[in-house]
Design brief:
The protein is α/β, with parallel strands linked by helices. It is built from 31 helices and 11 strands. Helix 2 crosses helix 6, helix 3 (21-34) packs antiparallel against helix 5 and helix 20 runs antiparallel to helix 21 (378-422).
C-alpha cells in the first residue's frame, strides 16, 4: 500500500482530488439542500420561493458536478507537473501541462452533429479524465525533457511565461497528436466514442442475469470497484437498477396491497437503505470510524463537515475530501464492506428476522427512519443500526492504518520543513506559507495552530544554564518549546520561522519576554540573584516601533533591573535597515545587555563589532563542533577571544558537549560555556534545583 500510494501517479491524483474539494463541497451541499427529505422544509421553501425554488441548487449542481471530470483532469495534470519537475533543471509551466491535458481529452471525445457530448465532462467521464490526465502529462513532460524538441526564445523583452509557452510548443503538439491519432485508430476499429463504449461494456456484463444473491453481490462489488477507480458506479449501472431492482419493489408493493407477503428480497430500497449507508462505500460508517479513531485535525475536520450530509446519504465531501478514490488504504473496506452488508441483510431477510422492503423511500432519508419506512417494521431500523456497527468495525483497523501512514508521511514533510528553514534566505518576506506543496501545506497548518497553542499551554519556555570554568552558574538562556498535539515537538527554528511570516511574531515575542521575566522575578524572590537571563529576539520584532515601550512595561511590572536581562540577536538584525539598529540601541540605552548569537561563521560577523555595542558574543556551534579536529577553527576561536577581550566583550561557547571541548576552549581563553556537558534545557523547577546543587557543591 505504501509503495503504491507514494508513486507519482497516485500522489498526483490524490493531490488533484484535494484541489477539487471546494467545488465538490459546494455541489454536495446543493444536492443536500434540494433533497432534504423533510416535508415541512420542502413546503416552507416552496411557499417562500415558489415551486421552482430548487432551481438555484440545480444550477449550482451543474456548475460543480457537471465539470467534475474536467476539473479533476486539470488539477491532476497540474499536480503531476509540479511533482515530477522537482529537482529537474528544465522548466515546464504546470498550467501549460494542464491545458495540454484538457486538449488531449477533447481530442479523444466524440463529436455528434458538430457538438461535443458534454455529459462526459461530469461524473460519468471521471475515469477517462483521470486516465488521460496521467498519460498526457507524462507524455508532455517527457517530450519537454528532450532538448531538441524545445524552442529557445532569447529576448530581453520576453517574459518568463512567453518563453515557457514557446518552449512547450513542440511537446504540446506531439502530445495532442498522440491522442488525436489514438482516436482515429479507435474509430477505425468501430469505437467512435470511448466513453460510451466503456459504459456500454460495463452495462452488458449484467445482460441476462436474474435478481439473486450472486447478482446482487456482483452488482454491489462492481459499483464500488468502479467508484474506487473514479468511475461513477451508480450511474454506470443505473440501467441494471432499473431493469432488475426497481420492478422488484413494485412486485412487493402489489403483494402488500393484496395482503400477501412480499417475495422479492433485492430491490432498489434494499441497497439504498441497508447497504449504501451514507452513500456508496457505506461512508457513514467511515465517518464514524474517523471521528472515533483518528487524531489528525484536518482529516477529522473533513469527517465533521461530512457528518450532516452523510446522515442524508450525500457522501461526495468524504469521497473526494479524504479522498477515497485510489486510496489503497481504504480499498478493502470501501469495496468489500458493501458486499458484506448485502450478505448480512440478505441473511436477515431470508431468515424472516427483518421484513422485506415494500415502500419506496427517498435516497436521502436518514438512518433509522429509512429502515422503518422501507419495511414498515421496527426490525428494518434495527438492521440499519446493526449494519452501521458492522461497518464501523470493519473500517476501524484500516482507518488506524491510514492514520499511521499519514503520521509517517507528515513526519517526513516536517523534516523537509526543518531543512527548508535551515536554508531560508535571510532577506526573505513570505516563503514557507506561500509554498504550494506538502511543505507549504504543513507550514500553513502549523501557522493556524500556533496562535491557539500559544494560549493553551502547548508552547512553553525551558531554560539552559550557562556555566563558567569554575563550575559556577552565571546565566541561563530561555528557549522556546512547542509540543504540537499531532506532530509532537516542533523544532524551535520552524516555530519562529512560521511566526516571522505572520503578525504573530510580535505576540509570540512579547509573550516570551513576559514569561521569562516573570519566571526571573520568581527566582529572584527565591534567592537566585546573581545570574542573568538571555532572551532571543527575532529581527522582525525590531520592526515594531513600540517594542522598547513594551519591554519597559514588562520590566516595570516585574521589578527586574535591565542589566540582568540580555537580548540575543542574529546577523539578520541589520538586514532591516537602520531602524532595527536604532531600536536595538534604544533597548541598549535602557540598560539591557546585547548578545550576538552564532558569531564567527557569518559573512559579516566582524562588522557587528564595529556597528553594534555588544556585551556578549556567543560562538557559532560549527566552530565548537570542530574545535578538536580542525586547526583553522582553533585559530578563529583564538582570534575572536583576543579581539573580544580587547573590547571588553564576554565570550560564551554554545554546544559544549564533552570535557575535551571544554578543556580546549579554556586553553584558548574562553571561560563561559553552555551545552549538554553541563545541562540540557530544563523546566523552571529543575533549573532552580540545578542552581542550588551547583551552589552547594561550590560551598
Amino acid at each position: 500500500m505504501r509503495r503504491i500510494s507514494d508513486t507519482l501517479v497516485i500522489t498526483s491524483i490524490r493531490q488533484g482530488l484535494t484541489l477539487m474539494i471546494p467545488v465538490m463541497m459546494i455541489g454536495a451541499f446543493a444536492i443536500f439542500l434540494n433533497n432534504l427529505p423533510v416535508k415541512l422544509y420542502q413546503e416552507f421553501m416552496s411557499g417562500i420561493f415558489g415551486s421552482g425554488w430548487n432551481s438555484f441548487g440545480v444550477y449550482v449542481h451543474r456548475g460543480t458536478f457537471a465539470i467534475m471530470a474536467t476539473g479533476m483532469l486539470l488539477s491532476i495534470s497540474y499536480s503531476m507537473a509540479r511533482n515530477s519537475l522537482r529537482g529537474i533543471k528544465h522548466e515546464v509551466n504546470p498550467m501549460i501541462t494542464a491545458i495540454v491535458s484538457l486538449a488531449s481529452l477533447f481530442a479523444m471525445m466524440n463529436v455528434k452533429q458538430g457538438y461535443l457530448l458534454l455529459n462526459w465532462l461530469g461524473p460519468l467521464g471521471v475515469f477517462i479524465a483521470i486516465l488521460i490526465a496521467c498519460t498526457s502529462s507524462l507524455l508532455f513532460l517527457y517530450f519537454s525533457s528532450v532538448p531538441r524538441l524545445k524552442i529557445r526564445l532569447y529576448s530581453n523583452t520576453a517574459d518568463r511565461n512567453l518563453a515557457q509557452a514557446i518552449s512547450s510548443l513542440v511537446p504540446a503538439m506531439l502530445t495532442i497528436s498522440v491522442f488525436s491519432f489514438l482516436h482515429i485508430l479507435l474509430a477505425s476499429a468501430g469505437i467512435e466514442d470511448v466513453h460510451a463504449a466503456l459504459n456500454q461494456g460495463l452495462k452488458n456484463m449484467f445482460t441476462g442475469m436474474s435478481s439473486s444473491l450472486f447478482t446482487a453481490v456482483i452488482f454491489v462489488g462492481l459499483i464500488h470497484l468502479f467508484w474506487f477507480f473514479g468511475i461513477h458506479g451508480n450511474n454506470v449501472l443505473e440501467p441494471v437498477t432499473q431493469t432488475l431492482f426497481v420492478p422488484a419493489l413494485e412486485v412487493n408493493r402489489r403483494l402488500a396491497d393484496q395482503g400477501l407477503p412480499p417475495v422479492e428480497i433485492f430491490t432498489k430500497q434494499f441497497f439504498d437503505v441497508f447497504v449504501f449507508l451514507g452513500g456508496s462505500g457505506a461512508t457513514l460508517c467511515l465517518i464514524v470510524a474517523l471521528l472515533l479513531g483518528i487524531r489528525r485535525s484536518n482529516t477529522k475536520q473533513i469527517a465533521v463537515i461530512s457528518t450532516l450530509p452523510g446522515i442524508f446519504n450525500v457522501n461526495e465531501i468524504m469521497v473526494f475530501g479524504i479522498p477515497v478514490i485510489l486510496n489503497f488504504y481504504l480499498f478493502i473496506p470501501f469495496v468489500i464492506l458493501p458486499v458484506i452488508l448485502t450478505a448480512v441483510t440478505y441473511t436477515a431477510m431470508s431468515l424472516g428476522l427483518v421484513s422485506l422492503t415494500v415502500s419506496p423511500v427517498e435516497w436521502t432519508t436518514p438512518l433509522i427512519i429509512g429502515g422503518y419506512a422501507a419495511t414498515g417494521s421496527l426490525s428494518g431500523a434495527i438492521l440499519q443500526l446493526f449494519n452501521l456497527a458492522v461497518g464501523i468495525t470493519i473500517y476501524w483497523p484500516f482507518v488506524r492504518m491510514y492514520e499511521k501512514r499519514l503520521a509517517e508521511g507528515q513526519q517526513v514533510i516536517l523534516q523537509n520543513l526543518v531543512e527548508k528553514v535551515k536554508h531560508l534566505d535571510e532577506n526573505r518576506a513570505t516563503i514557507l506559507l506561500d509554498r504550494m506543496d506538502d511543505t507549504g501545506n504543513l507550514a500553513r497548518l502549523l501557522a493556524g495552530d500556533l496562535p491557539r497553542d500559544l494560549h493553551n499551554g502547548r508552547i512553553k519556555l525551558m531554560y539552559q544554564p550557562q556555566v563558567d570554568s569554575s563550575n559556577k552558574m552565571t546565566g541561563m538562556e530561555a528557549l522556546l518549546r512547542w509540543n504540537h498535539k499531532e506532530f509532537g515537538p516542533i523544532a524551535p527554528p520552524v516555530a519562529v520561522a512560521i511566526a516571522e511570516e505572520t503578525p504573530l511574531i510580535h505576540e509570540l515575542g512579547i509573550w516570551i519576554i513576559k514569561t521569562a521575566c516573570g519566571k526571573m522575578k520568581q527566582w529572584r524572590e527565591e534567592g537566585i540573584d546573581d545570574i542573568s537571563l538571555s532572551i532571543n529576539l527575532s529581527p522582525y520584532q525590531l520592526d515594531d516601533p513600540h517594542l522598547p515601550l513594551k519591554v519597559a512595561a514588562v520590566l516595570d511590572e516585574t521589578g527586574l533591573a535591565p542589566s540582568c536581562i540580555e537580548i540575543e540577536i542574529t546577523e539578520q538584525v541589520s538586514l532591516g535597515g537602520l531602524e532595527r539598529i536604532a531600536r536595538l540601541n534604544e533597548l541598549k540605552n535602557m540598560g539591557l545587555r546585547v548578545a550576538m548569537d552564532d558569531f564567527g561563521m557569518g559573512h559579516s560577523s566582524l562588522m557587528y563589532l564595529k556597528e553594534l555595542n555588544l556585551d556578549t558574543i556567543k560562538l557559532d556551534g560549527e566552530l565548537i563542533h570542530e574545535v578538536l579536529t580542525n586547526p583553522r577553527c582553533t585559530e578563529i576561536i583564538s582570534s575572536i577571544v583576543q579581539l573580544a577581550a580587547a573590547m571588553d566583550i564576554l565570550i560564551i561557547a554554545e554546544f559544549v558537549n564533552n570535557h575535551e571541548q571544554q578543556k580546549a576552549l579554556e586553553r584558548l581563553g574562553c571561560r563561559h560555556y553552555q551545552g549538554y556537558l553541563y545541562s540540557p534545557p530544563l523546566e523552571p523547577d529543575d533549573l532552580f534545583k540545578y542552581y542550588v546543587s551547583l551552589k552547594n557543591s561550590k560551598s
